[in-house]
Amino acid sequence: MRDALENAVAEGRCGNRLWLYATYHCNLACVYCLTESRPGIANRRALGREIMVRAATDARDLGFTCLGVTGGEIFMLQDAAETIAELGGILPTVVLTNGTLFTERILTRLEPLAGSVVALQISLDSPEASHNDALRGPENFARVATAVPALLERGIRVRIATTVEDQTEDELSRLCELHRSWGISDDDHLVRSVVRRGRAALEDMGVEPGPMDILPELTLTADGAFLHPFAPTVRHGVTDLDLLVSRQINPLEAAVSRFLRVVADQPVGTDVARNIR
């Protein structure tokens, strides 16, 4: 199994990262959210710390070389800081977060991540508070602008993720000036278009992904294993199953086996266009 995964990665059929959807619960309700996450959501679809740690350990043994953690908002979970540290002790980990829940208490609990292989990827869509907050939620910009320097001061690696819908080139340029002023390089700034799935599809926003636009990266949720992290989307409270790989996520080997059979039909080579990441 390890050899098969490593070969598929080397051929460009899939990525070497395992994604974990920690929860679909969130303190925000972004207009383009893939999973219809929001405050007070009834079906939070949380994986739980034990499941995520076991999946990470199995992933390392099977040949994955890094982890991604997303949601929802992982810091809605009480043990988020400790879970992230444990995952980072298994494999290099990037954690997607909206950056609005970093109280002094949480910042203190995150201090063990200083200098580690864990990066917090914080969403920020515009240098203009009004535009950013219209997309993401009230006071989002101000909270992120406070959180990023506080995290960097503690030696925690921060990346910035920008989701583009109607921002101007000048606006994006000024956003780059902002993250550089914080000491975050262009290499740690991810920019992508809104993907027309989930809430974005209902709002008629974003781009419709083609079959080769997104690199397959095995993604685990409470609903099963999916083809990539843009796959386990939700519309009207129901999970989309068009890109479901397996209902079974434990043991991970079973999901990986199904995943490799699916990606066997992917094109080979570094020249394959992947327009969404």
Helix content: 25-40%
Proportion of residues in β-strands? 15-25%
Contiguous helical run count = 9
Largest sheet features:
9 strands, mixed
Q: In order across it, which strands form the biggest sheet?
A: 6-5-4-3-2-1-7-8-11
User: Low-confidence parts lasting 5 or more residues at pLDDT below 50?
Assistant: none
**What would CATH call the homologous superfamily?**
Aldolase class I
What structural class results from the helix and strand content?
A: alpha/beta
Q: And the CATH topology?
A: TIM Barrel
Report the CATH C-level class.
Alpha Beta
N-to-C SSE string, H for helix and E for strand:
HEHEHEHEHHEHEHEEEEEH
Number of domains: 1
> Architecture in CATH?
Alpha-Beta Barrel
Morphology: globular
Overall pLDDT: 94
Protein architecture, described:
This protein is α/β, with parallel strands linked by helices and 277 residues long. It has helices at residues 2-10, 49-62, 80-88, 104-110, 129-136, 140-153, 169-181, 199-202, 252-263, and strands at residues 17-23, 66-71, 93-97, 118-123, 157-164, 189-193, 219-221, 224-226, 234-235, 238-239, 244-246. Helix 7 links the parallel strand 5 (157-164) and strand 6. Helix 2 packs parallel to helix 3. The radius of gyration is 18 Å and the shape is globular. The mean pLDDT is 94.
